[in-house]
Structures are given as structure tokens and as C-alpha cells.
Amino acid sequence: MVGTVSRRRILALAIIGMIVQVTAPIQAGDWSRFRGSGGTGLAPSADKLPADIGPEQNVIWKTELPPGHSSPAIIGNRIFITAVRGDQEKKLLTISLDRATGKIQWEAEAPYKKLEKIHGIGSFAQSSPCADADCVVSFFGSSGLYCYDHSGKKLWDLPMGPFNNDFGAGSSPQIIGDRVILCQDHDLDSFLMAIDKKTGKEIWRIDRSEFPRNYCTPIIWDNQGHRQIVIAATMRVVGYDFETGKEEWTVRGISRMVSCSPTIGDDGNLYLAGWAAGGDENERIGVESFESVARLKDKNQDGLLTEAELQDGPIHQRFSQVDRNKDGMVTAVEYEYFRGLFADGKNLVLSIKPGAKGEATESHVLWRQSRLVPFCASPLYVDGLVFTVKDGGMLQCLDAKTGKPLKQQRLEAIGSYYASPVSGDGKIYLLNQAGQLTVISATGKFEILHTADFMDSVYATPAIVDGRIYLRTDKALFCFGLQ
User: 290-343 has which CATH code?
Assistant: First the structure.
């Protein structure tokens, strides 16, 4: 009798389990921030993904959106994105969409007193939102941080900006436990800060005025049991203590400006890249001394150089960056600082091993690779391999242990790459600015599996969750998956 009851109970539980499996939401994974919940660009599960996606291929749904460069954050049954609506009177928006259907659920507008300056191809919605089970946090350089619950109710805001940077704000916030972490590197007053997620109050703030404009979104690294915030920026990589913001280690000798974000391999090592014009070994940009240039071009002999006086050359081309306080004049100190960046900056892909403390340039760099260094598209680590894509469509795969190239190939999709590569189900998805897609196998001798053309600009990094690929173009958000 006991055995019969037990068998009936097991059968009943099995049936209930089947019902739960059928009726439970299929959404189990999250993509909580730029490049996913760990900042790695890797799908959190092994669900099957289609290789052949395109405007008319394996589309689950498509939703027209106002433009923006931010990447989607996905939590539960919601997708969060930021955008800009309007031509004359622009509205800075946080938008929530239903994950299953793509239907817009709500919009929230962030007010501003003045729009920040942005690059000619930039957007006022460049930073990606982040989210968790409680809330979504959006960041606009013209306005600041905004926190909403999942129904769109504003919980708090923290005014900031506009910043001293004519390229605009681009680094993205992230939620880690009960904190929001935000780094903003601009031509003046750069900082790293931790904010209480519930109240919006500052927990700590670290001055980074040493660093001019950079666009690295930090990554959280478990450095041998010690949680740290890692940022790659002008000339050096820094690890900060998560609890206090104290600088704990540095690696020197990278590029004069960094737009890529680091990633972490399953080996525990850091992988990162930094590229800026003049930093390649065979394309160095030399800058004459301030004294020699001023002797010829300082027409009024006031010891300062204006943009009109410079007329041409590498400093003239980057005048707004060299003139960090934006007073319209370059001092000898400003000039020589930037000259030093050209002299010492090195474009590199590199790996850093755990255990770094203090000065770690020589002790903890595993390898450096100076060829085909990406500009904006962050490195991708997959199963002992590191993939990078350089502007011009130059794709390479490196051995993660040694940094040695396993394969290098120019893609048909040339041009600039602002979206970072992402991977799932043994595939890697790459998109250039023109909206040309290349799908490759995630292997050392990668093969091209599929190409497509979205005929629309792409700046946002796709998200991959639960067998679905969420890809944003300038005009729409697509959801792809196997039918």
C-alpha cells in the first residue's frame, strides 16, 4: 500500500512538474546591462540560436523605436531601452517593452536644462540602461541618472551634466547588489562613484581628473576573492576596491584614449583593448614642442595658442580635447600633456592575470598584442579564444593563453564597428555601423556562417537571452529566434 501511494505521489508530482514546465514563462535569463549581466557579451544559457537572421529572417517581432545608440537591458518579461524623440524639442526617454511581443509598455521622460554637446554621429541616448528585479536605471549626460520601478514610476533622480566634452557621455551605469556604479571620464572633473540603489544617495565618489575623455564601461572583477571595479582609460588600467573606491592596482602603457570595455574569461583573467589615432607602431603621430610651434604661430606673443593660430596639425585637429577647460586657448601645460600622450600611448590588446596589487605593469600582464586593435568594439572571450574586430572589418582570433593570432580575416562588412560582438550557441554576431551583419563560428579558425544587411545604422550591442537575439538598429528593435 505504501509503495502504491508513493508511486501515485511521484506520478502526481511529475504531472504537476510538466504543467509547471508548460505554463511557466520561458524567460529565465537576464541581460541586465551593457554587454550582459557579467559584461562579457556571452549568452547566459546554451539555448539554440539561428545563424541566418536578417530583416526578414527568423524575426519573432519588430518594434519601431525613436533613435538612440543605447543597448537593451532585459529583466524578466521586460526590455528597457533609451531613445531620443523629436527634432527641435528633443525628449530623452526611457522605454519599457514587453519581452514576448515587443509592445511598448511605458515611456518616461528625463528633463534637462541644456543638451550636452555630442559627436557628429553621436546621440543624446548613448549610455545603455541597467536593471534588476526591482528597478531600471537610465543615464543621460544632459540630465543625470534616473531610477524607475518596473511600472515606470520614478523612484529617484540624481542631476548631472552636461559634461565638459563635445563628444558627449557614453559610459553606462550598472547595478551591483544594492549599488549603482557609474564612471564618467570627461575633459574635466572625471569621476567614479557608487550610489545607493534604493535612495539615489552617493556612497562614495573618487576623483579621476587625471583622465580626460574615455568611454570604457567598468567591469567587476573577482581578483582572488577581492571584488574590484576595473576601468581602462588614458595610459593605464586601474582596479578600485568595490567597497571604498580606493585605487588598489594599475597597469600602465596603453592608448591615449579608450573606448572599449574589458571582459573576463572563464580562466579569471582580464582581457581589454585600447586604440587611438597615432598609437599604432607603424603609424605614430609626432607632435612638435609647444616652444617651437609657438615661435612660429603665436601671432600676438601671449604664450597661448588659439585654434585659428594653429591652423593645422594633430593638435589643431583635436583642439577641443587639448583645450580641456574650454576657454578657447591652449596653454603650454595643456599642449605638452597632450603631446606626451601621442609620444607614449600604445594601441594594444592585452591580458592581465589575477593577484594584481600596486604597480602591476610588469608583474601581471600576461601578454600584449599590438596588431588589429579595435577602436570601439570591445574584445570578446569565448572558450579560451579572444575575438576582436577593428574598423575596416578586420577580424581576428587570438589564443587567450598567449595572445598569438590564430586567424585574421577582412570581412565583406567593412567600415566602422561601434557595436561590440556577442556570442551564444557557438556563434558570434558582429554588426558594423552601416547595419551589415556577419555571423561566424566561435572557433579558432572561424568560418563565416551568414551575412545580412539591415539597411539601417547600428551602434547598439545586441543582447542574447533564452534563445532570442535582441538587435537594435537606428529605427527599430528586432527579436530573432528559431520558430
Answer: 1.10.238
Q: Where in the chain is the domain with CATH 1.10.238?
A: 290-343
Beta-ladder partners of 270 = 264, 352
- Strand segments, DSSP code E, in 177-269 are 179-184, 191-196, 202-207, 219-223, 226-233, 236-241, 247-252, 263-264
Calpha distance 390→420 (Å, rounded): 11
Q: Give me the pLDDT at residue 193, please.
A: 98
Single pTM value for the model = 0.93
Mean pLDDT, contiguous 10-residue spans, the chain (483 residues): 37 35 49 97 97 98 98 97 95 98 98 96 98 98 98 98 96 98 98 98 98 98 96 98 98 98 98 97 95 95 96 95 96 97 98 98 98 98 98 98 98 98 98 98 98 98 98 98 91
* pLDDT value of residue 10: 35
User: Across the strands, what pairs with 54?
Assistant: 57
Q: What is the number of other CB atoms lying within 10 angstroms of the CB of residue 283? A: 9
Q: In angstroms, rounded to a whole number, what is the distance separating the alpha carbons of residues 45 and 28?
A: 9
SS3 332: helix
Q: What are the residues facing 400 on neighbouring strands?
A: none
Which of 219, 286, 231 lies closest to 258, judged by CA? 231
In CATH terms, the superfamily for domain 59-276+345-480 is: YVTN repeat-like/Quinoprotein amine dehydrogenase (2.130.10.10)
Reduced DSSP (H G I as helix, E B as strand, rest coil) percent helix, strand, coil of the chain, to 5? 10, 35, 50
CA separation for the pair 445, 422 (Å, rounded): 17
Reduced to 3 states (helix: H, G, I; strand: E, B; else coil), residue 436 is strand
Alpha carbon of 313 to those of 204, 283, 297, 375: distances in Å? 41, 15, 12, 22
Q: What is the DSSP letter of 47?
A: -
Question: So what's the pLDDT on residue 8?
Answer: 37
CB 418 within 8 A of CB 433: yes
| Sole residue written with cell 554621429 | 121
How far is residue 263 from each of residues 158, 216, 400, measured CA to CA in Å? 28, 11, 12
d(CA 179, CA 173): 10
Cell of residue 243, nine digits? 567597497
Q: Residues spanned by CATH 2.130.10.10 within the chain?
A: 59-276+345-480
Q: Report which of 362, 312, 304 is spatially closest to residue 335, judged by C-alpha positions.
A: 304
